[in-house]
Specification:
alpha/beta, 8 strands
Length: 222
């Protein structure tokens, strides 16, 4: 099963491509510039040194076409809607996984939610009900994803209005060696996306002795 990552040349996209390919899942890395996509894919394959599946770099439309079922959107929020408009036709019959967080343009420690309430809901409104949109992977550090010697140190909250699609995305996320949780309908993304700037604030604080922290759902000990 090939997945596509749109915005795959950015830090989050590259990290996810590495992790999924290492888990044995072929990746089509999408970029506005197909040549740039191919260059980044070659660099990532070199880092994997033949371990896992292949990453191919192409333009966004070609990446969507290569995806069997799941397309991950990993662009900055400023490019969120325009990118979706551009690839919408190719998404028919597929699931869009929206990992975008609407960080404030002036302060990444804050969110600036769109009128729909979250990036996930904005994507669903733009694409229409026939293309299921699932929010996931919002709170995973790009540095952690790109540092293959590190385990992914967080759980993944997955939300969206289509339960079947939600479960498929949870299954995909679990292949990264994480635990994913069913966080309910798309409206839950308002809370999940808003966690990211809080993590950014904590991770850059001089008052804590760590960085690149994530969130975990802890079961009670009793």
């Amino acid at each position: 099963m090939t997945i596509a990552i749109i915005g795959g040349t950015g830090p989050q996209g590259q990290g996810l491509a590495l992790r999924f390919a290492r888990a044995g899942i072929p990746v089509a890395l999408g970029s506005r510039d197909g040549v740039r996509g191919a260059e980044i894919a070659a660099e990532l394959n070199q880092r994997l040194a033949g371990a896992g599946a292949q990453i191919v770099g192409v333009n966004n439309d070609a990446a969507v076409a290569k995806a069997d079922e799941i397309v991950i959107l990993a662009v900055p929020f400023s490019a969120h809607n325009v990118t979706l408009e551009a690839i919408k036709a190719g998404l028919k019959g597929k699931i869009l996984v929206d990992i975008v967080v609407p960080l404030s343009a002036n302060d990444p420690k804050l969110v600036s939610m769109p009128p729909e309430g979250s990036a996930t809901e904005a994507a669903q409104a733009l694409l229409g009900p026939e293309i299921p949109v699932i929010g996931a992977l919002h709170n995973v550090s790009a540095t952690t994803l790109n540092t293959l010697d590190w385990d992914i140190n967080c759980d993944v909250l997955v939300c969206g209005d289509d339960l079947t699609a939600r479960m498929k995305v949870m299954e995909l996320c679990n292949k990264l060696g994480v635990t994913s949780y069913n966080a309910g309908p798309a409206q839950s993304a308002r809370c999940i996306e808003a966690i990211t700037p809080i993590l950014i604030r904590i991770n850059i604080s001089k008052a804590v002795p760590f960085s690149h922290a994530g969130i975990k759902i802890w079961a009670p000990s009793h």
